[in-house]
Amino acid sequence: MDTSRPVPLLTVAVVLGLGLLGRAAIAAPSQVRPAQCAGDWYPGDPAALGKLIDGLLERESAPEVSGKPLALIAPHAGYVYSAPVSAAAYARLRGLHYKRVIVLAFSHRNAGRYRGVDVPKELTAYATPLGEVPLDRAACDQLLKNPLFTSNPGVDAGEHSLELQLPFLQRVLKDFTLVPLLVGQMSEPDYTRAAQALLPLVDADTLLVASSDFTHFGARFDYQPFKDDVENKLRELAEQAAAPLLRADYDGFVAHLSKTGDTICGRGPICLLLRVLSMRAGAQAVRTAFDTSGHQTGDWTNSVTYQSFVFTQPAGTLSPEERSELLGIARRTVTAFVKGEPTPKLDADKLSAKLRADGACFVTLQNHGELRGCIGNMLADGPLYQSVVRNALNACQDPRFTDNPVTAKELGDLHIEISYLTPMKRLASTDDIVIGRHGLLIGLGGRRGVLLPQVAYERGWTREEFLREVCHKAGLPPDAWKRPEAELHSFEAEVFGEPEK
Q: Kindly report the CA angle at 225 between 224 and 227, in degrees rounded to 5?
């Protein structure tokens, strides 16, 4: 919608999605998808569009996030309604560079027509009034080899959820390639499998964007969980939806949807985004903006909520130099042990205060992805650097591999990983478990079992699957975690390993 002209209230009932459903798609004679929503959902004139976005971006203050963003959630309503909320997230990308952007969107009209994720098979670019955005054809073709990723011609006809993200990306990033994905019907296992397919594409130079408006309230949307104090209750509902997003908590977000029936139109893109983040060791988020169409128009009969979020990697407590030092200690310890040599002596005075402070850790040995040993201590019982030495020695003698111990011939193939643990915390509720962040320890009837955070997120487990598996590790029935006498503790791990060879 062109924000340079006023919007009659008569139009609001049509745009509360928000934008005109408008023109039918015009088939492009080339492999470039034309701008199908320009002039209706956002300005069609390049100069006006650029001026609008730049002005909104300039209003935003300095970034409030720590670290380079991994992902963001932004709305896709007509710019007259949602552009300021989107700008609050996109402003955090200024001055940064990404080679590739994966946009997770959906088709308002056709999402029910197919299972999985739609990937354009022939397109080479998306066009907006600001120019063409080239597709990362290699990445798209790679995804199309997975049965969950299919090409469904016509599902993006007249669709705005993806297109409305592009002008913002063009203004803040300028030079990038696009992987445009439309999420269709998905089961819980589908989200895990789709995330596994996306993970090889998600690197430090790749940004994930999930396109979604939030609560659609009113008779028009067949969602009226309350009739009084609508403005405040919509804000409360938005806070409930935001809570798991701020923790990048897939299970928590799904539980919110199930409990409230919240009419979040981009739930599919958000679920897939959260699943990808959880399988990459988790994330943290800040909410960058909130608004509602009811607030903008003064009409709370029908209202759409808009929120934007920016996700970053949780900050670690150890510096890169301290991590490197610990990995070097572990490598020298393992090397000496398998060669039958004495454990190298360390000059503790040359180590940082953090490495000399009490700390608990696990040391994991792998040979081309195959586990060769993993031993650790849950409670700090001495300096961290000594824990690394002791657990590296014990990992070489992991009793699970007594008949096939680590040998000197493997040294060149071994990959060493350290998990530096936070103190354990007794869980008041299993709802507090976040896959990608927490490890678990269960104690019941003299049996104990522990699983590190990466065991859950690398396998794409849900919260309940994680709970069942930690019970199995303890030799308990899979539902033992439900017993009142079961003691569950969570902990976090700062996981780091040697560079991949």
A: 70
